[in-house]
Design a protein that fits this description.
It comes from Algoriphagus formosus. The chain has two helices and five strands. The chain is α+β, with helices and mostly antiparallel strands. The chain has one domain (24-116). It has a five-stranded antiparallel sheet. The termini are far apart. The mean pLDDT is 92.
């Protein structure tokens, strides 16, 4: 009969024939490693989206729903234009990019209009 070894640490396994791990810790470690790469990837993207959202929120003055700012200010704050949650196209064809409830619209001359989504 073939000796089974733990999928995580390689130690010999004793017990049931369908057992794959030597103990609960090895099972947990193995499963964590299997999903860590995908989780870290998603965690980094979510962190980036939240940072973008917070930057947009910080630029709009209190009590206002929009603000105009140059692109270089967004860049200095650490805004990353690659990451956004969704887009919204107006009837006139303007495309807003949103990070959750805050969005931006590219204007002429490297200016951006920052907007807060109104609750519906």
């Amino acid at each position: 009969m073939e000796k089974k070894t733990c999928l995580n640490c390689g130690a010999p396994i004793q017990g049931r024939a369908d057992k794959k791990f030597c103990d609960d810790q090895c099972r947990n470690n193995y499963n964590y490693k299997q999903y860590a790469d995908n989780s870290n990837f998603m965690r980094r993207i979510n962190h980036r989206l939240k940072k973008n959202r917070n930057i947009l929120e910080s630029l709009i003055p209190s009590g206002e729903d929009m603000y105009k700012t140059p692109k270089d200010r967004l860049m200095r704050e650490g805004f990353d234009f690659v990451y956004f949650t969704h887009t919204y196209e107006t009837k006139k064809g303007s495309v807003y990019h949103f990070c959750y409830d805050y969005g931006y619209l590219a204007l002429e001359g490297d200016w951006y209009l920052i907007v807060r989504r109104k609750e519906s």
